[in-house]
């Protein structure tokens, strides 16, 4: 079993000093570091850490939030590491996933993260419904304006090929075919 450290700060103005000192005081010798937002999954130190750890290793962090910004992201990271038989130990929260209590706490955090995702989906659904009620378009922007749609239908009725129409209107072939499928009767 090897204790491996991970430290992260979000900006160049911050330093790793306090986190590094805390991990070194616990005897952690190999420490991976990042100066990046916790919302990014492509942090170099984080990716190197994931590639380095082996089954039975323990990743030591000063706080659980060093792994990421959102609770659901952190829980997913911890769950992924658990499947690889890599444990997590936090200093601030006193969580150790190699113990029954630590696994229980992570289970509770997992339930909270799922609840958080449900709330986010519900809030987004309510916001979309409110926008629709105000007459606003919800979702991706339309690929074609109404004028382009009418032009495409008229060109198709005139016998122009799909390749010619998409070239003239600057839209994709799949966009044109969706339009044609939605309007089987040509424009009169």
Helix content: 40-55%
How is the main sheet built?
Answer: 4 strands, parallel
What is the CATH topology descriptor of the largest domain? Rossmann fold
Number of domains: 2
Strand content: 5-15%
Radius of gyration (Å): 26 Å
Task: Return the structural class.
Answer: alpha/beta
Distance, first to last CA:
76 Å
Low-confidence parts, pLDDT < 50 over ≥5 residues? none
CATH level 1 name of the largest domain: Alpha Beta
Folded structure, characterized:
The protein is of the alpha/beta class and 188 residues long. The chain has two domains: 110 residues, Rossmann fold; 37 residues. Helix content is 51%, strand content 11%. The protein has seven helices and four strands. Strands 2-1-3-4 form a four-stranded parallel sheet, sandwiched between helices. Strand 3, helix 3 and strand 4 form a beta-alpha-beta unit. It starts with a strand and ends in a 6-residue tail after the last helix.
